[in-house]
């Protein structure tokens, strides 16, 4: 039996769809229920529906053999897992944003609101800029509006949230997309099943590109 941790929420639908197309049918996940575990007897696969930011924890500890998680989450965690494949889903970018009227003042310590504290610290270290981190858990765009921070480091997808709150991107940090990850022992001891899944997903993605 192969155990797979899949993210609930906005990434979920795209991921279930890809897995189904690749022959790992998990359509029963669409049942209107509060169940968190789904089984495909024929394929000997069990799916767990997990909070997106917890996927790597299930995989690292071996509660799941493989999982799908955003690169943004992987960069924040210290999880010791294998990153097998870029699934190209949930594409967005990590960026620095500020008020439309923001003026950079290099003489002041920059106040940065974010839930991605590790990513923000390493980005500002790389550009040699002293910062103070203000850790938030959501609605990050509020921080510069209320002058709680000078800038934010957050995910930008369509740019709509920034626009509707009179903010703008001042620096793109990196592109983000969903990754297939594997537990290190599972990769060894369930190699055939994990490898087969990686190949099937890759074939499906390559097909998408050709079409
Ligand atoms: N507009 C977006 N906002 C946030 N994440 C996005 C967006 N577009 C794509 N993603 C990707 O989807 C993943 C899951 O995002 P989602 O918003 O469902 O979870 P979350 O609310 O950030 O997670 P959690 O509930 O665990 O804090 C992110 O880790 C990111 O890789
Ligand atoms: O560029 P856009 O398409 O507008 O998407 C970006 C927004 O989506 C995410 O927020 P989310 O909806 O997950 O809410 P939260 O982080 O504030 O909880 C992210 O933190 C941005 O606020």
UniProtKB/TrEMBL annotation:
Homology family: Belongs to the ATP phosphoribosyltransferase family. Short subfamily.
The reaction(s) this protein catalyses: 1-(5-phospho-beta-D-ribosyl)-ATP + diphosphate = 5-phospho-alpha-D-ribose 1-diphosphate + ATP
Gene Ontology cellular-component terms listed: cytoplasm
GO terms, molecular function: ATP binding; ATP phosphoribosyltransferase activity
Annotated protein name in UniProt: ATP phosphoribosyltransferase
Keyword hit for Transmembrane helix: no
Pfam families cross-referenced by the UniProt entry: HisG
Domain description: Lacks the C-terminal regulatory region which is replaced by HisZ.
EC top class named in words: transferase
NCBIfam families, sorted: hisG
Pathway(s) this gene product operates in, as recorded in its UniProt entry: Amino-acid biosynthesis; L-histidine biosynthesis; L-histidine from 5-phospho-alpha-D-ribose 1-diphosphate: step 1/9
Enzyme nomenclature, EC number: 2.4.2.17
Subunit annotation: Heteromultimer composed of HisG and HisZ subunits.
Domain ATP phosphoribosyltransferase catalytic, chain residue ranges per copy: 51-202
Species the sequence originates in: Blautia liquoris
Record GO biological process: L-histidine biosynthetic process
Keyword annotations from UniProtKB, A to Z: Amino-acid biosynthesis, ATP-binding, Cytoplasm, Glycosyltransferase, Histidine biosynthesis, Nucleotide-binding, Transferase
């Amino acid at each position: 039996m192969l155990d797979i941790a899949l993210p609930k929420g906005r990434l979920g639908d795209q991921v279930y769809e890809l897995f189904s197309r690749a022959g790992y049918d998990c359509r029963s996940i669409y049942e209107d229920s509060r169940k968190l575990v789904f089984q495909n007897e024929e394929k000997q696969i069990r799916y767990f529906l997990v909070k997106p930011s917890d996927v790597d924890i299930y995989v690292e500890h071996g509660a799941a053999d493989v999982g799908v998680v955003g690169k943004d989450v992987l960069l924040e965690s210290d999880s010791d897992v294998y990153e097998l494949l870029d699934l190209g889903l949930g594409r967005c970018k990590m960026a620095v944003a500020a008020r439309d009227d923001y003026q950079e003042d290099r003489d002041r310590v920059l106040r940065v609101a974010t839930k991605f504290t590790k990513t923000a610290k390493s980005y500002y270290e790389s550009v040699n800029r002293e910062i103070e981190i203000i850790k938030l858990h959501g609605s990050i765009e509020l921080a510069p509006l209320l002058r709680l921070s000078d800038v934010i480091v957050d995910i930008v997808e369509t740019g709509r949230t920034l626009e509707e709150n009179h903010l703008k991107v001042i620096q793109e940090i990196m592109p983000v997309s969903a990754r297939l990850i594997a537990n290190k022992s599972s990769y060894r001891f369930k190699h055939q099943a994990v490898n087969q899944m990686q190949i099937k997903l890759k074939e499906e993605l390559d097909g998408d590109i050709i079409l």
